Structures
1.
Amino acid sequence: MADRSTTLYQGILLKLVTVLELTQKPEGISTLQARQALLQATNDFKSALLQAKEMAANMPGGELLIEDQDDIIEMLTTLRQRKREKLTQFSAQAQAVSSETVAETKMEVDSMASTPFHE
């Protein structure tokens, strides 16, 4: 759907430019052919606008009120912050455990180095 909507929205601008170019020609829309081209371009533009309106209305969450959307955004922001805090705590614990392991290993190596070799 993202590709279709992107193409649709980009096409709206191109269709509008076509309508504007047709209306701004020096000869105007005095000929039947020019009027037909303008009518076709205008209809294409209107059709694209209707499709875009339908697509926007059918987007997930589009039925929610702005206040409801704001509440959901706030809830998701809070959830993201909590997860970041948990990850920070987890990272600190992992670093502490890693530091302890390194220190214990170093103590063992130091202890072994100072102990005379026995067979």
2.
Amino acid sequence: MAASPTLRRRRVARLLFQQRERSGLTAKAVAAEAKRISGKARGWSESKINRLETGEWKRLSIDDVLLLLDIYEVTDEGEREDYTRLVREANQKGWWATYENVLGGGQLIGLEAEASSIRSYQSMTVPGLLQTESYARAMATASAMGETGEVERRVEARMLRKAVFSKAQPPAFWTVIDEAALLHITPELSDQLEHLLDVSRHPHIGIQVLPVAHGPHAAMTGHFVIMEFPMPDPPVVYLEAVSEELYLESENQVREYQRRFDYVQASALSVDESRELIRTRLSAL
């Protein structure tokens, strides 16, 4: 399986931050030392160190990373080679880079590509990874609010995302979908309900529906996605607003959403009951 540049980027950034923390140096002190060692008065600054540690760079220089490792006194050749490999992988481009004009940075797709487990709660829509082409097109058209120039590229990218389920080791995907999302599916989009019934038989996919009749619940404030990865990468929580994406990584934040998902899952119908509710909704269209 090809490494996800997105995940590698986050790993390099996290490791550089951890190395600086262990060294006891401030970002300003590291920048000053980098200037001294490199002999360059320009090119190194406190803001650059901060960008490197948060992954806010387009392409990372291997030489820059090795210079930082010198400052942090990382001398083991094996460890330095690991960093070099990570930087090379982080500088690659995933297929989603072709769709930057409709996907932005594509971080979510890059993380999905290597996730071992994905759990989501969806309040008003079917999860992107389970959408049919017709439903994805209807969603993209509605979101475009009349500006339909990029709708087909959005749909194409959405369909390509589903390739994660075709991998030799696909992620374990579990979703709780609010019944409200199903109520927004019109007769011409009935294939979406049929698709949910089909994929619910997939050994790696679990679908539960949270009935509107159950009243208030632990995730009333909106949908979220929890992604977990093989070691050593930590879990990430993804939140989406109208015009921005937010990624949470602190242990406390992730733990809070994991707990919230557990509560929502406990409030939802069982997998079999959910399948029956979807069938009932499909028959009613």
